[in-house]
């Protein structure tokens, strides 16, 4: 199910009129019309106003706001405010306050101050959501439900007494017999064998390291508890308002490590993602593209919604740089290019008080005389011209393997090198593909990947037998797979696959690893191509694979660094190190081998993405860029381009494509 309204691309954001006097609402609706705002999210943090005392609900203030918005053509994404339980509730049920891994019970005064497993919180949630659903059932302004806010951020794992009780029940359901749990957790190591479920605790902070299989299960369990809290609300809302889609906003697909979004996606009617730039990071638009591609991928390739981003600066980074002129527009259109059917912000009007008073809004503190407001109004007009894109898809020939379980497992304590991190490798490969102008999907290793020409596994440390077989079948049937080091090492219990590494992939890659040789910080080795490489070297023993490139020096001098194993109708490549500069060339070799077509000769400051018969050309650089091989009519100014298209510095051109003459 997908929201039927607003038509076209949804534009707007979180709206918190309860922070303002009534007159401001009048001003806001006028401004919303000026900017073309057609959707706002309401009530996300308003539990204290909706239920001022236990069991007494007060929706009159909200009715007035919703009616006013409705009269002005603005639809409502109605929030359930469970991310902000009220003070009276927490005072009455202090046991709902979450406990950190270190054993600190957090206090009231922030948000997310209740544990998803706490029975009193679940009961109060159900009561409130039922009242909200009953009150707004049939209201013409409400087009979708927005449950909670960013599950998992900042509250991922909780270590309170309710969590431990739920954890034991979860383990019982999963393992049935305590002996099965002991086997799965390798409990004979350090003499941790359990004889009763009641002996099992959460993997609390410890003076040494805690059983990694226990921690991995706790990550699964904790994420699942939040999903249960979400599903409790969703089921009530589905019962009361069967025609309305239900969602929750992800705390940035790429940045919220604790949520397994492949699992979450099954529970949502529409995928909604938040993304904030790391303001100080150069080329932060590449992280944005990655977040959008991952959102589209967890949506199963279908359109999704950008639920939050910022019009200007955020307030929670060390140095909160304002967006430069044009940057907000590039960001917004990049999300649309990559499949979003909405451009929504946190928030409509910047707050005067509270923790986020220095966070930008669509209406900044400087008001509507500002450059930022002019950009907001212009963007609204541009999005109306892109209305026809709604519902259209983005196609990719290349996929990156992304599995949250592998992410969790890889970054537990005591691994061969602290430089082995999931995001570091994922970012490196994504960036190389982005610079090659290749649009990618993300896939779970067990998914149907037969439609991709190339699949890359940058960091698949945890890989089940079944997933490894899936990759094997893919290659045999003609797929081309590139695997990076430290993949296929352990199974779902963080137990090493039998025999030499990489146990799950030895046969497929046609090689084995005799020894890991992690490099020192800042140490590099040289490949036979002359390119430097860092982080990792290892002794590869080919058994069917051919050497494409070797190590010229370092601990594995004279041995393979890049191999290819031709298998069935496809090929399986393996890269045993982290090239410093050469990753893009090396990837290009694999893409060429697999026949992946892509634009050539374009500078890598230009983002080129296709969606629904349109080509988006986003120039992130400070010079004009000329693109060959694209033609069509510019959506924003109606100009026809038959020859090369020049995109001014910092600008975005969107062409309704026509075949190139
Ligand atoms: C998001 C959150 C919003 C707001 C925003 C500020 O993570 O969902 O409520 O706090 O950050 O950037």
From TrEMBL:
It catalyses: Hydrolysis of terminal non-reducing beta-D-galactose residues in beta-D-galactosides. Transmembrane segments: none annotated. Keywords: Glycosidase, Hydrolase. Its EC number is 3.2.1.23. Pfam families: Glyco_hydro_42, Glyco_hydro_42M. It comes from the Bacteria. Gene3D superfamilies: 3.40.50.880, Glycosidases. Residues 14-386 form the Glycoside hydrolase family 42 N-terminal domain. It comes from Nonomuraea composti. Belongs to the glycosyl hydrolase 42 family. This is Beta-galactosidase. Residues 396-596 form the Beta-galactosidase trimerisation domain. InterPro entries: Beta_galactosidase_Trimer, Class_I_gatase-like, GH, Glyco_hydro_42, Glyco_hydro_42_N.
